[in-house]
Amino acid sequence: QQTRADLARNLPSSNLSGHDVQATRTSLLGAPGFAHARVVSNPAAPDATPVGEGMCISCHQLEADHFTHTLHALGLHAANKADASVPVCETCHGAGSAHSQSPQTRGLIIGFTKDSGTPIDVQTRTCLSCHEGGPRDHWTGSVHQRNDLSCSDCHNPMANFSSEGLMAKASINDTCAQCHKDIRVQFNRRSHMPLPEGQMSCADCHNPHGSVTSPLLKTNTVNETCYQCHAEKRGPFLFEHAPVRENCLNCHSPHGSNQNTLLVAPIPFLCQQCHTGQRHPNDLHTSQSLATGSNPDERIMGRGCLTCHANIHGSNAPSGPRFHE
Amino acid sequence: QADSGIGVDTWRANKLDPSAGAQGRMTDEFGTSWLIGGQRRSPTGNLYMCPAQPPQLDHFGDWIGYGVLEAGAVGTSGDDRNALWNRYADWDSGLILGLLDYTWQRPDDGSYANVRASRISEDDQYYQAVFGRAGAFKIQAFIRDQPNLVSSNAKPIWNGVGSDQLTLPTALTPGGSTVADVAAVSAATPERTLSVKRSKQGIGFDLNLPMRWSVYANLADEQRKGARPYGGPFFFNYPFPNNGGVLETTKPIDDHTLAINLGVRHVATQWRMDFSYSGSFYRDRYTRYTYQTPFALWAVVPGSASAPLTTGQMAMEPDNDYHNIKAAFTYKLPLNGELSLTASAGRMSQDDRLIAPIDCNGVFGIGLGGNLNPGPANPFLFRCSDWNTPAALSRRTADMRIDTSLLDARISLQPLDGISVRGGLRFNRDDYRNGYLAYNPLTGDYGYIAENGSQGSIVPGEVGLFNPVTAPSNITRVRSLPLDLQTIDANLGADWKLDNKNTLGATFAFNRYEPTHRERRRIDDNSLKLTWVNRSLDWLTLRANYTWKKSNGDPYEFDPYEFTYSIDLPGYVPPAGGTPSHTVEAMRKYDMSSRDGHKIDVMATIMPREDMTLSASLRGDWNSYDAPIGRQDYQTSSATLQWDWQPRDGTNLSAYAAWDRSHLRLSNVQDQQAGAGVDPRLGGPNYALIGQWWLRDSQRDVYAGATLDHRIGRVRIDANWNYTRARGMDRYNYAGPTALAYPALAPGAGPGGGAFPAMTYRVDSISVGVTIPLADRFALRVFDYYERGRVSDWHYSGFDTARVIDHRVYTDGGPTRYNANLVGVMLRVAL
């Protein structure tokens, strides 16, 4: 049985870069879990030495009870079981000796909470030492990074608070709504994407970790993002409608709208922002044009313009240049 | 299980539990830590949740397992078929599987497996399975069905809803029914639902390879099936009483899309690389659908006859293929810097078989003197056989393609402690390949058959065709519109950490937008964004952003589409009065218009006590467009306030209130010369100022809600209330009665104004649930969810009494009010 001192002596030196994490793995599927995890360096406690999970648990038993069923714990424990030099808690929190000697002093352990005393950039660098690249490739310079968000603003890996993703709240959507409540309530409008119903998440369209397309879109353009679920709109059509091809958001409000089908404004006025061609498009309608009015008019009743110009997203009919067919 | 960088399907849940099981877990009565009470806060200051009770484990050799099963029964009552109540949730009274969530873990090597499932009804269910080893690999598969109910009060008069052939019932005669006949059929048609069900199956894996390489692949196939309200034109009814046909048909939805995402990633000491491929293959069962019109047409020329037309057609979306490859490289620079390069190339294409220009037999058009025999004496009458075949097209398939390319470069450096600078450059192109010329080799005509032949069967000469010999002055569309596009984005910014409490940032961004065949060849967007993050006070985190925006470009060409019309063809002869102007010169389409704007965004997280958080946000986006005609202003603003209180573990209370509003102002102008005006100037004889009008669309929304989650002993009580009230108003002014669609209705000869009825939407919902432990592993949950909706949309005014209004036939009755309730009893078993 190793003592804590034995364990501390066996643990490797701190390494903030994380560059050699997994770097020495050579066999496919051979390494259990997080086999090459290392103790992360804490700039606020450079002389601290690792103490091992047992020491941590002596005070943080309840945290360990919750943590132990997470994916991080599963991997770290498996790795630690195979090789006792692999740290568990100290992989993320840094060497614990200074903290154990002075637990009330903030910053001696890397913390991910508001009062931890650990700077935001140290928090994020700690996470990125393992999670660098891939979906987080453009974290640096992203709007969330520039607004000083930490990974732990959205994630809490200390327990399974969400069914997936180790989110800070019960779901991705609830997590985003912590700051973006104004966007979240837009999904309560009459027409909306099926987000309140749990059928999709903010992360279906947005990559909160950064992307090459504003606002944090997962694809190269707005339209590419929409086509992921609305592939039929991709075309290209024999006859294209210019603003449709340019940007779906010319006509649609992406989160929710008080109009039908997420439209930005009621038809026909949505269309009359651009269409003032001669004859029928440029008339001003009043409520007298409704079915209950004195002059019912198909240009404003029901689907309005779209009753005739039905294929408004583009038509593949040779007789469809005005989207009638 | 989600990849936030690639694809969709990041979440599977349903309205019964949008959290997919998380919110149903009992919190740990001991809290988070033995050392401190209550909850810690995120770096921003939001309170973390209380963790759930650790699961009860079962052992299976090397494996441990835990999970939960929730099953029971629900019942709905009230207006439970209403479309708004059922929009994305297919509530079905009866037995349901609320949740099955079971996890296996093998601590020895980090292996794990999970199955999760929920079944509300046949159209609202999901099943997923995951197997993997932590840090090594993950394989997952899922099946899900999603409902999308679009109308619950549809009254389609046709048989064959959901198919590609809509035929009239025997009580109606195609092309020969009276309004009364059709109204009787419509009135007798029972209301039914129209919905589209999405069924999706997916499989994927992630695998970490040696030397920090990883690969992933995801494959998903989605089928959509159902029907939705759509259009169906047989020419105007409003100018020609008892003529034309405006038909709201139903469009069949029967397609599937195969989506593929795969890639390789590498993270090295200095380099990161990401190579990916995305593909999408859309296939529609139908190329078109047809529908019968019940109404006869009559020609406006006295003594002439209109050809009997009975069938309309609507092209479906073409099958399309999409490929995209992307490579991203990031190199770590000195000074804590990074240089990132991304290159992407894509292609979207379709080569669907083209449908014939018209679906008719015999003739279409107008027979002068009542004679429906085609020939030189009948210049407005056409043989269907010359147009009802693909041989009437310049080519048989669409053969359309867009190639896309993207280059993105960005750099960040930290030259001094606390100061970082960054810059970016992005180049994007969409290149259209191929074009389409609407030319009939059988007749030598250019153009198309307008509105299923009906327009040319009512108004002579408006069939939609140009012929340099027989109809040299007809103006019609003859070419497709290629929308090639190039954008260049550049940005430069810096962030300065004054101390650990304050960060200041500034970013200047430039976008050059260069479309072809649009009103402008170049539009430049400039913006300057200032950012401030402040944590000076322990009880406050403040984030504030301000953005200044300005957009302008080269001269605005009000009619760049001339080349797509017969005007551009050899042999075109302007009409006697000259070529009518396409539109008014003063129009500025809002995506092409010059614009000034300001945007603010303030978020505050306030911590008044250890167990309480107040979150507030204020946003505004004000845009003013340089448009005498067109969109002139668009402003949105919002304010939110959220209160969260966690007085003790197991008790949460929260409440929120939010308010937002938008104003959209536009102007348009009625032409005064019956479509023949040649002067495009605003203020000219055709677009006279007396015909100008203005509209202001205002939307005002109020939202509120409260949540209670409280534990009394071992009994848990949860309650939730949400309130949404939206009110939209459309107010108009006009310079003179001739701006109106019906000038005779104007109360006076001068300027005037008015408003549409308010468009409103109000929903109150409340849910109450009690979870009672029955035994060690068993608990009973009883809940009730009540929702009341009130909606008013003037588009559908009067549709509750009649859907047939002269020659207009409407299928959808529009959104309607409802009171609906869902009650459920669920047995929760800890497995």
Q: What attributes does this structure have?
A:
heterodimer, A: 325 residues, mainly alpha, two-stranded antiparallel ribbon, 14 helices, B: 831 residues, mainly beta, 26-stranded antiparallel beta barrel, 3-stranded mixed sheet, 42 strands, 53% strand, globular
Description:
The complex is a heterodimer of chains A (325) and B (831). Chain A has a two-stranded antiparallel sheet. By secondary structure, chain A is mainly alpha-helical. Residues 11-28 of chain A have low confidence and may be disordered. In chain A, 28% of the residues lie in helices and 1% in strands. The relative contact order of chain A is 0.08. With 831 residues, chain B is mainly β. In chain B, the strands form five sheets. Chain B has a 26-stranded antiparallel barrel. In chain B, strands 8-14-16 form a three-stranded mixed beta sheet, with no helix packed on it. The longest helix of chain B is centred in the N-terminal third of the chain and has 10 residues, at 179-188. Chains A and B meet through helix 3, helix 4, helix 10, helix 11 and helix 13 of A and strand 11, strand 12, strand 13, strand 16 and strand 17 of B.
